[in-house]
Structure formats: structure tokens, C-alpha cells
Amino acid sequence: MTSARNESRRPHLQQLGEWWNSLPRTRQWLVLIPVVLLIYALPVLNPPILSTEPGTNFPIACFNAARFALIALGLNVVVGQAGLLDLGYVGFFAVGAYVAALFTSPDSALAKLPYLVTLPLAMVITMFFGVVLGTPTLRLRGDYLAIVTLGFGEIVRLLATIVPPLKGQVGFQEVGHPPGRLPDGSLIFASSNGTPWYWLVVTLTIAMLMLVGNLERSRVGRAWVAIREDEDAAQIMGVPTFKFKLWAFAIGAAIGGLSGALFAGEVGFVNNQKFDVPTSVLFLAAVVLGGSGNKVGVLLGAFVVSYVPDRFTELANYKYLIFGLALIILMIFRPQGLLGARQRLLAKGREAYQRLIGRPEQVSSESALAAESAKGVGA
Amino acid sequence: MHPLTTFLADAWINFDVGSLRDQFWSNTFDGLTYGAIYALVAMGYTLVYGVLNLINFAHSEVFIVGAYAVFFVLSGLGFGPSAPALSIGALVADLLLAMVAAMLVSAAVAVILERVAYRPLRRKGVPRLVFLITAIGASFTIQYLIFIWRGPSAEPAVIMFRPEAVFTVFGADIDDQQLTIVAAALVLMLVADVFVNRTRLGRGVRAVAQDPDTATLMGVNKERVIMLTFLMGGLLAGAASLFYVMKVPSGVQYSGGFILGIKAFAAAVLGGIGNIRGALLGGLLLGVVSNYGQTLLGASQWSDVVAFVVLVVVLMFRPTGILGESLGKARV
Predict the structure, then answer these.
(1) Does some domain include residue B219?
(2) Nearest chain A Cα to B320, which residue?
(3) Could you tell me one molecular function GO term of this UniProt entry (chain A) (predicted)?
(4) What is the least distance, in Å, from the CA of A75 to any CA of chain B?
(5) Is the Cβ–Cβ distance between B232 and B9 less than 8 Å?
């Protein structure tokens, strides 16, 4: 599906990719370290080209972008890797935020835990929700998962409204934060201070990036790609598709829960108003925009989705419309997103094919969303 | 007491069995009324699913656009927050006018959607994930176009007529509004059923649902059949929007279609998605069950939660629904 328009650009990108992949691991790290340092320094540098001020406090904007990046990374496991459409990701995000709030806020009757303990706890609990929701739906066709998750996203918000212990719009004040004070006695992780929160989220994002990257390179990741490309074929080849789909869904949910708990900590206040389904579609837009299945792509997409409304505040009211339209237009003209998926697994297969037949394989599939499939719509 | 016990003992869910017992029959009749509306909307999901095997997420917006048409036509005709003093004939004429307008607007939106967003994808033979993402993007786009045009709040209520009790069954009143909605919805569903099962065009729809390629070889115009299913879904959703505004006069809001869409989809799955009679049965059942849930649990939002739980439970134990998936398998 490579259109003529992309052909001119593709070789450069491909060369860059090949050059990068041919580097030894240590060299890759050497190149990455300055990039990572630059990313860490971003809120302190506040470069004038990137700055979102006066509209939005720049460290807060950085925190938002990092939070979106973590969410997009988690959603990418579900949508990009395993090819399952999760439209209720905000539900898992909300569950994570409520776990953090329930265990740390003085408004809650529950035992108080240190904030940092609630982060893994939020992951475990959201993972549980993911399994509960995934077990009945993942056995069925993918469409059902889409609508069930869409419903789930809304139901979590409704339950937060109507179940008394979750306190509806009143919500929970003074959600916890990591310990530590500056020499002058003020809190390091204060709500108004985006920079340390940004650093925390970036660190966790990098940790998750490594975790997800290792999973992708393992048997699990290969199973995901196989399921995404052709679920029936994968099943016939002996891949336990249900098990791996459930894993993808649960891991995605856990990362969503983690970002929810981080969000609750930074804002310091959780109520039922912040977890509507449109937010969920923004998350999806972040993944699809950058290129689902490509980790760098989704980080880029997350940056765009979070940064554009923060920078151009006059656009903020139109952001849902803009990203909704962007989804349609991308799907019609460039379903693989800005950067396509990296499929070294299939690339290897294609090389072998070429060597055997002497010409390249006709079908090209660049990402989760560009695979030419016999099961395609109306095929 | 340990804080965890306090937390768990804190009332999460209250069961109000007394009110459910007292209001059982009035809840049943009201639930059937809502169920008739769900059933009409569910038809749109079921027809498109039957033919294309895909969920048209934007169908809820097709529905709410119709509700806006109803609102504009009726406020143009002088309807407002209090019931108008009109003769029966004039009232029926006004309501029919609003219904036709809503049906046309909804159908137009559905067909345009198919043309602009879905057809280019079908031509390319893309995987279903792409189609689903486009559908949710379309749903979102329409929703926020309305948002930008009309703002976040609901439109002022338009009351068509005050419901008056006609007769009493099991100690519960049945009013003329409930009768109108259920009767009109049944007639429309019957028309749709006859259309699909008895007419030439309907045979084409069933043929494409069974086997698109063979149907094409037999001379059925697949693209036209697909357009027809979107058109029918749109017409029925438009009609449903009139009854929705009749039942919920202040429910015309940019996001108003969303939950109703999920409930209608749950109804379609409950009855057996792709099955026209299943949509009716599923709609009525879901309307009644979610109404019971709302009374039993005590807040109107529980109705939505119960509908969602029904959807998940059906998918868990009988994913083909009560009557099975059968638009294609219907007798010829």
C-alpha cells in the first residue's frame, strides 16, 4: 500500500532505520544517552520555540506530554501490537487514579498507604479489571471488544458518580505524592511544580519502554504480531491466541492504571469529571497518529496530541474535532500513521521470500493498520 | 474497626426491593417504551452488521442528528416547554412532519457517512481495525461538530403532549404516550421486516449478507445494497429520535446519542446481532431489564450500568444472542 507520494521519502527513513538497527547495542545506548538527557532537561531549558507559556505552564505541559506518552505506550501494546481496539482505555486510567486516591486521600475511609506503594497496587488492580473485562470478550471477534471497552469507559465514570464511597463530583482531595522536601521545607512533588513529576513519569516511561520492548522481542511479542496479522493462521500454527490477547489487554490495562495513579498524584484531586470517553478517543488518536505498533511513533503521536492543545490554547476547544477528523483522514490515506510499525519479524520472512523467488513479495504490510488482508472489509 | 472493613461496609450498592415491587408493572410498561426506541436504533446496527459484519459506531450520531431535526422542526412549529393546545389532527400532522424531517436528515447523514468515510476503505480492502477506527473517528467528528455549533448544554425541552392515562393494567397506568411509541415502533419494525424478507431489494440485502461475492455474481449490486442498509438504518434511527424526544423532551444534546447507542447495540447483541426480529426482542427486553435495575438500585445512571452488564453477560454465555445471528440465514 505504499503510495507513490511516500516513495521519495521512504528511502531516507528506511536508511535511517537500517543504520540504527545495524548499530551494536552499546552504540545505540551511546547515541540515546544525550537524547534522553535532553528530554530530561526539557522543562528546565524551556526552549522558546517549544515553550507553551503564557497559555500553559511549561513544566506542566511537559508532564502532560509525558503522561500521554506513557498512556500511548500502554495502549500501543493493545492496539498496535496485538491489533485489538480498546476504546475504553480511560476506564483503566480512571481505575488507577481512584486506587491512588482511595489509598492516600484523607477523604477516603481506607487505610493509608505511601503513595509510591499505590503505583504498583494500581497496576495490579487495573490488570485484574483488564482480565475480568477481557475474558468474556476476547474469545469473540474484535468488534465486540471495541464496543465493550467503549461501554466500560463510560460505566466507570457512571459508577464513580453513583456509588457513594467513590464520592462522585465531590471527589477526593489531597491525593498523596512521593515523599521529600526541598531545603526550604516546601514539597518537592507539589501539584504546582511540574518538573519533578515530569522526571518521575519520564523515568517510569523509560522503564515501561524497556519492559514492553523486551516483551516485543520475546515469544510473546511474536505471538502478538502473528495474531495481529492473521488470527486464524496464528491459531492454526499453535499460538494460544486467547491467552496472548488477554496478556496484551492486561498489560495495556496495567500501564493505563499506572498513568492514572500518576495523574491523580500530580493533580492531587480525583473526581468523576476527568474520565470521559472523548479522552479515551484522544488516547487512541495518539497511538494511531504516530503509527500504531511503532514505539517511537506512538511517543511522537502522544506528544502531538498533548502538546498542540497546550501550546495553541485557542485550539483547545476544537481538539476533539481535530483529532476525530484526523482519525478518519489518516485511516483513509495513511493507515500506518506518521511512522509505520517496525516489523523485523516479517522483514526477515520477506528477505527469505525474496531469496527464494528472486523477486519481492507483492503484499506489503507496514503496520498493524496497513496489512492487506483477505479478511478485509468487503473483500 | 479496621478501616478496610469500614470501607467495604460503606454502602456501595443499595437494593431497594420495596420500590421495585411497588412499581413493577409501571416499570415494565415504561421499560417497553424505552425498549421500543432502543429496538429502532438497534436496527441500524443490526442491518449494517448483517451486511458488512462491522459495527457502525457513528450510528449513535446518526440518531442524535435526527433528534436535532425534531427539535428544530417542532420549535419552528411553536412547540416549547409547555404542551401546545392543538387539535388531535394538527398535532399528528406536526409530529409526522417532524418525524419525516428527522428520518430524512438521519438517513442523509448515514448515507453521506458511508460514502465519505467507509466506502474508500472498502475499496482498499483494509483490515477491520482500520474500519473500526474510522467509525469511531466519524462518530467523534459528528459529535463535536454539533458541540461547536450548539454548545455543551442540552436544547430547551420541546413537549409534544402531556401523557394521559388511557387504561390501567395490574394497577399501573398505561398512557397514550407509551401506546403511541410502542405501536409506532412495532409498525416500523414490521415494515422493515417485511421489506427485508418479502421484497426484491430485501432479497438483495439478504443475499449480500449471506455471501457478498456470490451475490455480486448473481447480479446484485453490492454497493447499492450497502447504501440501502445505511439508508434504512438512518430512517429508523430518525423515527426513533422523534420518540426519544417525546419521551425525554430535554435530551437533545451533542453527547445524547452516545449512551443510547451503546444500549441499542447491547439490545442488538442480546437479540442476536444481524437479526431483525432479534433487535426488536432485544430492545424490549433490555428496556425492561434496565428499567428494573434503575428502580432496584436507585439512580437513573444504573439503567446504563445494567444495560452494559447485560451486554457483557450475554457475550459471556450466549454471544449469538437469543435468536441467533441470522440476517443472511433468514428463509428465502
Answers:
(1) yes
(2) A140
(3) branched-chain amino acid transmembrane transporter activity
(4) 14
(5) no
Q: pTM here?
A: 0.83
**Does A206 share its domain with A220?**
yes
Please compute the mean of the pLDDT values over residues B235-254 and round it to a whole number: 89
What torsion, rounded to 10 degrees, do the Cα atoms A210, A212, A213, A217 define? 140
Grid cell at residue A339: 511512522
Contacts of B120 in chain A (CB under 8 A): 332
**Does the beta-carbon distance from A328 to B137 stay under 8 Å?**
yes
Asked whether residue A70 falls in the same domain as residue A181, the answer is yes
Backbone angles phi, psi at B232, to 5 degrees: -65, -45
The answer to whether B9 contacts chain A (CB < 8 Å) is no
* In a domain? residue A97: yes
Beta bridge partners of B167: B174
Query: Average pLDDT for residues A326-345, to the nearest whole number?
Result: 74
The domain in which residue B205 lies consists of 31-317
CATH number of the domain enclosing A74: 1.10.3470
Name the pLDDT band for A175 (thresholds 50, 70, 90). Answer: confident
Percentage, residues of chain B above pLDDT 70:
94
pLDDT tens, residue by residue, B40-78: 999 988 888 888 888 888 899 999 999 999 999 988 888
A251 and A358 assigned to the same domain? no
Query: Could you tell me if A278 and A365 lie in one domain?
Result: no
CB contacts of A373 in chain B (<8 Å) are 125-127
Supply the pLDDT for residue A374. Answer: 39
Q: Residue B312: list chain A partners with CB under 8 A.
A: 133, 136-137, 148
Residues A275 and A309 grouped into a single domain: yes
CA distance B142 to B145: 5
Name every residue whose Cβ is closer than 8 Å to that of residue B130 and which is 6 or more positions away in sequence.
A331, A335, A369, A377, B121
Distance from CA of A209 to the nearest CA of B (A): 24
Lowest mean per-residue pLDDT among A159-173, B134-148, B316-330: B316-330
Does residue A232 register a pLDDT over 50? yes
User: Å from A59 to nearest chain B CA?
Assistant: 29
Q: Is residue B272 part of a domain?
A: yes
Write out the three cell numbers for A99: 486506587
pLDDT at A87: 86
- Mean pLDDT of the residues in chain A: 80
B324 lies in a domain? Answer: no
User: Which residues constitute the domain of residue A214?
Assistant: 55-347
**Rounded (5°) CA angle A356-A358-A363:** 90
Mean local confidence (pLDDT), A219-243: 88
